[in-house]
Design brief:
The chain contains 15 helices and 14 strands. With 398 residues, it is α+β, with helices and mostly antiparallel strands.
């Protein structure tokens, strides 16, 4: 048995202990048996004697959860304790039994993991056992977010105000991650890495990741309102989301393990986050994430790209559900003209594509993807690409 069992007679003299009990109490059976509960547990564990007292007076089982058992060496063990009355076949009291469940490891893991994920996800992780922690191949969605111009902001604010800003920002953003079943993988300076599906894969992992990206942007607007109202400058962020198979588990040395994910799709999420700066967007996701979405989402295909180190191109989409009329005016007109322009662009009809992108830019001069493709069309009108052109844009060439 993994649980410790201690039996005692009606006077609380210990009659028998199992091997698990000697391990938990850190005393040999020979040293424990024959002693009274008071001698073994001492005044430091008066709560256990009180539990036995309740059982003696009521004749009913008494259960205590998540309590500290103080040992002779002044260390403690987190336990669940069940005190049970023992009776004869004629229901005559004959003694007592303590069942001790050592939850120290579970409590330590729970306290550690609760900093990175919601309570519901921690419970799932604990139920899944050690196999999940040791390393598995799993399809997940990975999200990266990053503060724009952080270095110059931190130089203007100074060390103390930078920490205040980051703590305020991280608090709001991580609450959003936890609210949608995400796991906070790590902070990297001003960057947040979150993962969806690394503990328990679900059908809505991609939806949750995109939802978090959108809600980060709406949450940022509220945060910036507070900052502006108190005389502080607003901050801006970009978000990248990718989906695919990664390796999940505890990675590191015995002295410092980190429950994280590694793989190409992790790197892709970070590159998409950075690509927002080029496209003038806020939330970008790859086609693999878009293909996994189950819930309706307003997306705009941005480009067909190839990242460094990869031979296969893929489509990139912009998530737009976070926008308001103020943040994206004339949205329907822009999206319609942009989609038509992108179709013509890929057919090498640069003149007509430029007309569409020009119309989109006129409807909303602040829409950078429209102006970017308008400039590409103008360049291709003057210098067309070679016949084998496939419409793919190589990231890193800009």
């Amino acid at each position: 048995m993994s649980n410790g069992v201690v039996t005692m007679d009606a006077s609380w003299n210990i009659t028998k202990v199992n091997q698990a009990a000697t391990r938990i109490l850190r005393q040999s059976g020979q040293k424990l048996e024959g002693k009274t509960a008071q001698e073994v547990l001492g005044t430091r564990n008066a709560w256990i004697l009180n539990s036995l007292g309740k059982v003696r007076s009521s004749g009913e089982t008494d259960i205590t959860v998540d309590a500290d058992l103080l040992l002779e060496d002044h260390t403690s063990v987190s336990i669940n304790l069940t005190a049970v009355p023992l009776v004869t076949t004629r229901d005559q009291p004959m003694g007592y039994m303590l069942v001790i469940e050592d939850i120290t490891r579970e409590k330590r893991l729970r306290n550690t993991m609760s900093r990175y994920m919601s309570k519901a996800v921690v419970d799932q992780l604990l139920e899944s056992g050690d196999a999940t922690l040791s390393g598995v191949d799993r399809e997940v969605s990975v999200l990266f977010s990053d503060i724009r111009g952080f270095t110059s902001i931190s130089e203007r604010l100074g060390a103390r105000e930078t920490i205040v800003m980051l703590n305020e920002y991280f608090t709001d953003m991580v609450d959003i991650v936890f609210a949608h079943n995400g796991i906070l993988d790590k902070y990297i300076g001003d960057m947040i890495m979150a993962v969806f599906g690394s503990v328990m894969a679900g059908d809505s992992d991609a939806d949750d990741a995109v939802e978090v990206g959108n809600r980060m942007m709406t949450g940022l607007r509220l945060l910036n309102q507070r900052r502006v109202n108190t005389g502080r400058e607003p901050i801006h962020i970009g978000v990248g989301v990718s989906t695919g198979h990664v390796v999940v588990g505890n990675i590191g040395s015995p002295k410092r393990l980190e429950y994280t994910v590694i793989g190409d799709r992790v790197n892709l999420a970070e590159r998409l986050e950075s690509a927002n700066k080029y496209y003038g967007t806020s939330v970008l996701l790859c086609q693999f994430t878009a293909a996994k979405l189950k819930r309706p989402a307003l997306l705009r295909e941005i480009d067909l790209i190839r990242v460094r180190g990869s031979t296969q191109p893929f489509s990139v989409f912009e998530a737009l559900d976070h926008h308001t009329e103020k943040s994206f005016s004339m949205r329907d007109e822009v999206l319609q003209a942009y989609a038509e322009g992108l179709r013509l662009y890929r057919q090498r009809d640069w003149v007509q594509a430029a007309t569409c992108f020009h119309a989109a830019s006129n409807a909303n001069p602040g829409d950078k993807p429209s102006s970017l493709f308008l400039e590409r069309c103008r360049q291709y009108i003057e210098t067309p690409p070679p016949e084998g052109w496939d419409g793919v844009w190589a990231m890193g060439h800009h």
